[in-house]
Amino acid sequence: MAISKMLQGLSKTLKFYVRFTPSFTRIGYVARLLPFRPISGNFAGQRWLVSGASGGIGKAVALMAAGRGAQVFAVGRNLDALESLVSESVELAGTIHPVLCDLASVAAIDEMARHWNQSTEIDVLVNCVGILNRDYSSTHEGFETTYTTNLLGHFHLTETLAEIGCLSKGANIINVTSGGMFNVPLNLPMLDGNKKVYNGFGAYASHKRAQVALTDYWRDTYGQRGVQAYVVHPGWADTAGVRSSLPTFRKILKPILRNAAQAADTIIWLAASRPTAIADRVWFDRKQRSTHAYAHTRQPQTTVPLLIARLDEDRRRALAAKGPKIG
């Protein structure tokens, strides 16, 4: 029975990679002729806030936005990496300002967000930070680390900026998801699982699936302010996170993995072109595509209102002991 179950799991994994490797890697990026379709647009006068900007896709987004004239607030927890990012941007048309913040702490995110005021409204918010842990760990606020980093922190940052009036009229919210979401339906139990039942891959996939629901929620909630929300799948890129969390995956696919700039392409394109988005779609290689690859994910195990209620309650819990009250 155990061997049979193992073989079934292996078969499922192989089918997943056989199906998506040509599309999600550099092969798909080139086959869609994206290198030959330059993005037009100038971001001069825009203020961008990019989380997870100390490396990988977030760093590429920060540099590419600044290269088009944006004033970028680059958020991360590694000061040396942020300072290195600033040094790389000195000859760009725009500017990069390092913002040191522990993105696994709701209290730290809250403190950072409330430093903004209406004179420094954000025009483009990129919720990019994300991690996949194989082993369980928890934050000092009592939540599983990747849950706070991948989802709860994104929710609190975006909601707080909206609450204090720091999202400009016509602002863009861009959430960066992953192909892992194709494996799970919208659910609550795997978002913040306990140590006994923790599955890092299931948690990560669930966070990424929830990002789709959040995107639609924000588009509906803040659309009357002119705010547009997008969720982007960047493809499979050779980042530090992949190197540490998926070493075998990287070893096998390294020759065809996308680089960070290729992974950031659709994020920059969306901010430049600002197309109309529809519900339950993910942007991938500059087109809207289905968020479902398998029938079972079309049957959600929870509702969007319950997800929002859960996130609201958890951010209140995280701030209950210390820090500003919400509401």
Topology at a glance:
Elements (H helix, E strand, L loop, with lengths): L1 H23 L1 H6 L15 E5 L4 H12 L3 E6 L2 H10 L6 E6 L5 H8 L8 E6 L17 H19 L3 E10 L23 H23 L5 E5 L7 H6 L1 H7 L6 H14 L7 E4 L2 E4 L13 H17 L7
Parallel strand pairs: 1-2, 1-4, 2-3, 4-5, 5-6
Antiparallel strand pairs: 7-8
Helix pairs in contact: 3-10, 5-6, 6-7, 6-11
Major sheet characteristics: 6 strands, parallel
What structural class results from the helix and strand content? alpha/beta
Radius of gyration based on Cα positions = 19 Å
Q: What's the arrangement of strands in the largest beta sheet?
A: 3-2-1-4-5-6
Unreliable residue stretches: 323-327
- Provide the helix percentage: 40-55%
Separation, N- and C-terminal Cα atoms: 52 Å
Query: How many DSSP H or I helices?
Result: 11
Shape: globular
The amount of beta strand, in percent, is 5-15%
Nearest-integer average pLDDT: 93
Topology as H/E string?
HHEHEHEHEHEHEHHHEEH
Number of distinct beta strands: 8
Describe the structure.
The chain is α/β, with parallel strands linked by helices and 327 residues long. The protein has 11 helices and 8 strands. The chain has helices at 2-24, 26-31, 56-67, 79-88, 106-113, 145-163, 200-222, 240-245, 247-253, 260-273, 304-320, and strands at residues 47-51, 71-76, 95-100, 122-127, 167-176, 228-232, 281-284, 287-290. Strand 5, helix 7 (200-222) and strand 6 (228-232) form a beta-alpha-beta unit. The chain is globular, with a radius of gyration of 19 Å. Mean pLDDT is 93; it is low at 323-327.
